[in-house]
Write a structure and sequence with these properties.
CATH topology: TIM Barrel
CATH class: Alpha Beta
Mean pLDDT: 89
Radius of gyration: 19 Å
Low-confidence stretches: 325-329
Bound molecules: S-adenosylmethionine, iron/sulfur cluster
Strand order of the largest sheet: 7-8-9-6-5-4-3-2-1-10-11-12
Helix content: 25-40%
Distance between the termini: 24 Å
Number of domains: 1
CATH architecture: Alpha-Beta Barrel
Largest sheet: 12 strands, mixed
Shape: globular
Number of strands: 12
């Protein structure tokens, strides 16, 4: 479906916001829990949500399926770490029915990779074709430091398993000035050598963490300049409706994306909304706007009521966000990325 279609595949009017943007992409966070504690994402001693506040797998399926019926063509399962959610493969299996009917183009996943060795084949069998794996460095000590205790070998083993299962893997790396900046060329070379795309992400001021993010903020414009001192980067004319811009690295033959969420240049083409693991719909990553779909469904709403609530929230999708990383200012958005789903 193109952004100009005005009906979903199921005959309902498409989900169009107040600025004429069609919503075709939903990210679903299935848990706020994680087996890692990345410094830019979580505090060391995170307090996780009581289970009763987190949507059940059936509730997640109901809400995600309502979006599919309204024309969402792509679902990304995220978290927290989605693969630590008990029973999550059942959710993949259920949502996979929309791939079979053709209502959904893509069911995908963002993961830290620690559990992939166990789940990669099952994901491929259930119709997942591509996944994003977050990996900030190939240095085991630095990996342990950034993730506060993670084992790099497990993640590499997970990526091996994913490739063996035939999944296309994209590496997401957060760029940290004093953390991993010096290691990124090696990570990119390694990934391109294995046929993997890489996307670099600027740190976003979301949720209280223990470090001062202004110290670690690295502008990707600056990083791109550094890479261009030894590589030839050619801009590619690809867009996903998201904040990524892509280049080809001539020397490695691979593709590199830059996600600069602090810039406004993607808001006008934004086609996505996010559902937290507690059932809150956020129509903009960088704003506090929210619609409590858990209250709607736990209040006994019919499917028609749910659709009305979703349409109302999408209609009010903000025109753009107002992220900024300012010294001494708190996070621009109080919720953590692990709750919202990156
Ligand atoms: N646990 C999974 C993972 O790490 O891939 C999925 C959830 S994680 C919140 C999704 C993505 O958000 C990861 O690529 C992570 O690096 C990124 N992320 C987390 N906190 C961030 C922040 N403050 N700024 C930018 N990216 C962030
Ligand atoms: Fe966990 Fe992903 Fe956040 Fe790291 S970025 S702490 S892996 S949710």
């Amino acid at each position: 479906m193109t952004p100009y279609d005005d009906t979903s595949s199921q005959g309902q009017p498409a989900l169009v916001d107040g600025f004429g943007r069609t919503v075709t992409y939903l990210r679903v966070s299935v848990t706020d829990r994680c087996d890692l504690r990345c410094v830019y994402c979580m505090a060391e001693h995170m307090v996780f949500l009581p289970k009763a506040q987190v949507l059940t797998l059936e509730e997640l399926d109901r809400i995600a399926s309502a979006f599919v019926a309204l024309g969402v063509r792509k679902l990304r399962i995220t978290g927290g770490e989605p693969l630590v959610r008990k029973g999550v493969m059942g959710l993949f299996q259920n949502l996979g029915r929309h791939l079979k009917t053709g209502a959904l183009d893509e069911l995908t996943l963002t993961t830290n990779g620690t559990q992939l060795a166990a789940f990669a084949q099952a994901l491929a069998d259930l119709g997942v074709e591509r996944i994003n794996v977050s990996l900030d460095t190939l240095n085991p000590d630095l990996f342990r430091a950034i993730t506060r205790g993670g084992d790099l070998a497990r993640v590499i083993g997970g990526i091996d398993a994913a490739q063996t299962a035939g999944l296309r893997v994209k590496i997401n790396a957060v760029a940290l000035k004093d953390g991993n900046a010096a290691e990124l060329p090696e990570l990119i070379r390694w990934a391109h050598g294995r046929g993997l795309e890489v996307t670099l992400i600027e740190t976003m001021p979301m949720g209280e963490v223990d470090v001062d993010r202004t110290d670690e903020y690295l502008s990707l414009t600056e990083l791109r300049g550094d890479l261009e001192s030894f590589w030839t980067l050619t801009d590619l004319d690809v867009t996903t409706g998201g904040p990524a811009r892509y280049v080809e690295v001539k020397e490695t033959g691979g593709r590199l994306g830059f996600i600069t969420p602090l810039s406004h240049n993607f808001c006008e083409a934004c086609n996505r909304v996010r559902l937290t693991c507690t059932g809150t719909l956020h129509t903009c990553l960088g704003r506090e706007d929210a619609c409590d779909l858990r209250a709607v469904i736990r209040g006994g709403a019919s499917d028609a009521d749910l659709v009305t609530a979703i349409r109302g929230a999408v209609d009010a999708k903000p025109k753009g966000h107002d992220f900024k990383i300012a010294r001494s200012a708190g996070p621009a958005v109080a919720r953590h990325m692990s709750t919202t789903g990156g």
